[in-house]
Amino acid sequence: MEETKKVMLSGIKPTGDLTLGSYLGAIKNWAERAEQFDCYYFMADLHALTTRNNPADLRRRTLEQLAQYVACGLDPEKNTLFIQSHVPAHAELGWVLNCYTMFGELSRMTQFKDKSRKNADNVNGGLFTYPSLMAADILLYQPDYVPVGDDQKQHVELTRDIAQRFNNLYSDTFKIPEPYIPKIGARVMDLQDPLSKMSKSDDVGTGRVCLMDKPEDIARKFKRAVTDSETGERCVRYAPEEKPGVANLMQIYAACTGRSFDAIEDEFAGHGYGDFKTAVGEAVIETLRPIREEASRIMKDKGYLETLCKNGAEKASYIANKTLRKVYKKVGLVPAVR
Ligand code: TRP
């Protein structure tokens, strides 16, 4: 008999384009996870509604993001990939859990405080109750692990508290999930500002390389990358403190080619930064080429995309509805006759 794998789940908001940073730092390592874990990944489109979007953009981004994950190696046969709004149980359990999440708890969420400060003209109810929906996203699938970045840790802690509270009131219903600190891949920094992370939702700038960028744009962005020429020493040497820009380019080159920092230093000994930046740009172009081509192919294949969405939503719904039925019954809702 097949041994049951531990369950892992993560949601990704379709609010920005995926970047080289998301790929080298995270997604690249996800394909192999499926060997060890039963993985669920969903496009958190309901969460995206907490800020204003252009509807056509949101729709396109949601599908593009899904296509890009598949193109990055997440096999839909081995992982459950789906769109959050295609599984109504998320919104349904979200409502129930809202009733088991305290106003005070939600008020203390750092992300809520940050976002309401930044978007003072749109501090809506959804932004406030976002963590209860996120708790529902998670608890529906009874996962063991939730891989999240630092900014989401507090939400996973709250999810545990909500689950515990519910279990104490109604007997064991939810598995208590643990945050999972993923194996870090390369830490890719902004090409123009090597002290900050290459982020997904920043404005379009030359410091950020997106998975779908055209080769000529990638080449241009690397040619313009900052290399700390003020130190005077213009050689390729790994010194993150003194030369963060060069160190970042070396990280990227190492991640794309599999070469060590020593090997890279040797390769560019006696060359200026210009040659080095061109080489890094070329390595990135070749790394991203198959991903971009595959994602575009998927985006054009409406039939495949539909099947992908449908199969994912069916697989997810089966598990999610089981949990939802249990919850409805425990809290006293009359079972629907179907
Ligand atoms: N809140 C997460 C973010 O902003 C996205 C998310 C929604 C999520 N639901 C989730 C992550 C469930 C992990 C598990 O990045």
Quickly list its features.
5 strands, 338 residues, 14 helices, single chain, binds tryptophan
Written overview of the protein:
This protein is mainly α and 338 residues long. The protein contains 14 helices and five strands. Strands 1-2-3 form a three-stranded parallel β-sheet. Strand 4, helix 9 and strand 5 form a beta-alpha-beta unit. It is elongated, with a radius of gyration of 22 Å. The model has no long low-confidence stretch (mean pLDDT 93). The chain binds tryptophan.
Number of helices: 14
Report, as a whole number of angstroms, the end-to-end distance.
34 Å
| Secondary structural class | mainly alpha
The profile of the biggest β sheet is: 3 strands, parallel
Q: What string gives the helices and strands in order?
A: EHHEHHEHHHHEHEHHHHH
Ligand names: tryptophan
Number of strands: 5
